[in-house]
Amino acid sequence: MAKERLTIITPCSRPHNLQRLAESIRPGRLLFDVVWLVVFDFGECEDSRVGNYQRNCALDAIESGWVYFLDDDTVMHLDFFRELAKVKKEAVAFEQDLGNEIRPVCPERMRVQKIDMGQVAIRREVIGDTRFELGIYEADGMFIETVYNRDPARWEFLHKPLTHYNALRR
What we know:
Elements: E1 4-12, H1 18-25, E2 32-40, H2 52-60, E3 66-69, E4 75-76, H3 80-86, E5 91-97, E6 102-103, E7 120-123, H4 124-127, H5 139-150, E8 155-164
Parallel strand pairs: 1-2, 1-3, 5-8
Antiparallel strand pairs: 3-7, 4-8, 5-6, 5-7
């Protein structure tokens, strides 16, 4: 039986973290056909500090399957892939380990400044033509809010942390 595809997009400005990110992704290859797109842009666009341009370029290259945005300072939890494989709906939001607390997830938090890009995995078909606004730091929240509001019934919520936010900055 063919594995389902999971494309992980990492806008990268910290290449020294890539080895650690690769280690956190490696277990996923047992359950998914994992494609990891690391997109660099040092000075070619004004938005390189937040990765929106890079995320959009990567999205344009993906046709189907799951999409997950992994920042270059965030590490995936060991349960990430096993839990994603169980998801029955077309998009999922989950909690995030902040080091000293947990960032929760619920329908009311699916909006700007309440959710992080690293808390969602979405099938490419659900994303459609939605893209990240350039030059806006909160574009990740805007992106999630837009995709979620289009059809909330397509989303599932997992009340467990599946990523370690900014773990490589600590």
